Amino acid sequence: MFFQIKVLYRSGMEMTLEPNLIGVDGGGTACRICLIWRGQRIEARMGGANVTTDPSGAVAAITEGLHDVARQADITVSQLRDCPTYLGLAGVVGPADGVDLAAALPLSRVIVADDRLSSMRGALGHGHGAVAAVGTGSFLGRLSDDGARFVGGWGLILGDQASGAWLGRGLLSASLDACDGLRRTTVLTDDVLKEFDGPAGLVAFARTASPAEFAAWAPRVIAAAQAEDPTALGLMGAGAAYLETALTTLDWNPAERLCLIGGVGPHFKPYLSRAVAAACVAPQGSALDGALMLAAEMAVAPP
Questions:
Q1: Successive 10-residue mean pLDDT values, the chain, 303 residues
Q2: Do domains 5-121+286-300 and 127-283 have the same CATH topology?
Q3: How far apart are CA 40 and CA 226, in angstroms?
Q4: Closest listed residue to residue 85, CA positions, set 13, 36, 52
Q5: Domain residue spans in the chain?
Q6: Region 5-121+286-300: CATH code
Q7: What's the pTM?
């Protein structure tokens, strides 16, 4: 994706610019950074960058990425200082969350925001529609003539319904319920209890588990649901019901586009109602593309 920007000067003269840009997509499990430098696109991938659960780790991951892309471009990190930079990061719930992080980076033109807008812009481009972004965490968003609206994105402790972390935590909780006889045991719950050598091991794991560690169990839930395991089907069904409720809250209707994005999002399509599933389309780009689009808008914004 190239980022040529047309600038109209007061004199009426129009020029096309190819600015140097930096975009960052920081998820709870992995962080990606992209540098557009003299027309060349350079990318790097690092560890997770969740500002809420690990702010120092987020700074370290992004700094590592800056050094990586600078090395690939055969320049120094100091040469990146004035690049318009947009960071869409998991765990940012307000403007104050990004202040310390921005100050810790060797950059002067930085916007730190949550990852919702960059994910939605990447998926929808400049058009309207909605996204259900479901990875380690989750949120839904809709872009219309009235602007951008969002639901969710508050983290696993109080939200992130349908997310990979939510599925993993739900599986472990269901396994304990099955052990207590509160629900029917299934192949999946039996396997979980065996792998933890019983409920004590499961509880010990959950006591300190991060969202990413809970989310590591999501592929097991997805695969078991495809094999019609009742526990897994219940979790996927509950997650799909939440997504549809959130879409209704956003005033989305099936005449609009819907992009299921993130590592888990597309797996919910079989569990959505027919009308909602029929509205699903492939995203135009990634959250990283969205961050670059927003960085390009920074390049021509008034100082």
A1: 41 53 82 89 82 75 91 92 89 74 87 88 91 93 92 89 97 96 94 94 94 94 97 97 98 96 95 97 91 86 59
A2: yes
A3: 42
A4: 36
A5: 5-121+286-300, 127-283
A6: 3.30.420.40
A7: 0.80
